[in-house]
Amino acid sequence: MKRLLAKPLIRISLLVLLLVGVIATSMQVFAVMDLHVALPLMMKHYSFPTPGSWWNPSPGTSWQWQLSGEIDTSLDVQMYDIDLFDAPQPVIDQLHQDGRVVICYFSAGTYEDWRPDVAGFPAQVLGDPLAEWPGERWLDIRQIGSLEAVMSSRLDLAVQKNCDGVEPDNVDGYINDTGFPLEYADQLAYNTWLAGLAHDRHLSVGLKNDLGQVNDLLPYFDWALNEECFTYQECELLVPFISAGKAVFGVEYSLDPASYCPQANGMDFDFISKHLELDAWRLACR
Q1: Beta partners for 252?
Q2: Is-contact 113 136, C-beta < 8 A?
Q3: What is the mean pLDDT of residues 171-191?
Q4: Which of 39, 66, 130, 134 gives the lowest tally of CB atoms within 10 Å of its CB?
């Protein structure tokens, strides 16, 4: 019997060795390939859940954004964007009872030293501080393997708290002074990865700012949230979201609503005026 099995076993062993070689070669190719080339190839083999199983807002969706102070749940709006860690569960439950969609904010591109999960960030991913935000430092988003546990845990918390979606902030480090040589392709890979993690959990996910990558990231994000594109005269970059039937939420902190709201409404954007501290005060363009 051993002699009869010898040739089949040799063939099987050779096939296994051949398969391992092919896989190893493929990984080496991806490792040395420019991310602009490798990312589309990798995404081709990644299956996102079917769109529609999470919140997909269209233009004309009313909303409130409050990240500080006691949350005012009395506003008659369709969506509330509130802090993932700070929002009490009874507030989220009340908003749902009132028929509101709840989006939960967290920073995906920076380390904040006051968050309860700071121990999950390895020292090697911590970069330069954000000048105007004490206790906050940029992350080396190239090190996805080192960030996967903490970001996955944050998205799991969003599911646990019954958030309908998430707003990952600071996802444009590649155009900032982070202390790391981040490039366009690094940011594209990280943001696409984040969107995949959210959709794996059937969470809606919005693209925060990062206007330079709108066209590349449009297929992976369900809506956009922008700060001050009218102040900086760059709102045209958000038009692809509207053309795709996806809502563009936005805020202006210093402009007179009369100076920008007519244009925002004309572009089918959903803009509001807010205080910089993002307390309960809000003035909607429509």
Answers
A1: 273
A2: yes
A3: 98
A4: 134
CATH architecture of 52-284: Alpha-Beta Barrel (3.20)
Q: What is the 3-state secondary structure (H, E, C) of 258-283?
A: HHHHHHHHHCCCEEEECCCCCCCCCE
> Helix or strand or coil: residue 177?
coil
Farthest CA pair distance, the chain: 89
Give residue-wise pLDDT tens across range 66-104: 999 999 999 999 999 999 999 999 999 999 999 999 999
Token reading at 237: 């970059």
For the whole model, what pTM was predicted? Answer: 0.84
Alpha-carbon span 270 to 143, nearest angstrom: 35
Q: How far is CA 181 from CA 128, 145, 217, in A?
A: 12, 18, 21
pLDDT band per the 50, 70, 90 thresholds, residue 6: very low
Task: Give the DSSP letter of residue 34.
Answer: -
* Amino acid identity at 6: A
Six token digits for residue 120: 């999950």
Residue 170 near residue 208, CB atoms below 8 Å: yes
Cα separation, 127 vs 118, whole angstroms:
14
171 contacts: CB under 8 Å, gap ≥ 6 = 108, 109, 187, 190, 191, 194, 207, 208, 209, 210
- 178 by DSSP, 3-state: which? coil
- Are 157 and 166 spatial neighbours (Cβ–Cβ below 8 Å)? no
Are 251 and 228 in contact, with CB atoms under 8 Å apart? yes
**Are 118 and 111 a contacting pair, CB within 8 Å?**
yes
Span 105-123, pLDDT tens digits: 999 999 999 999 999 999 9
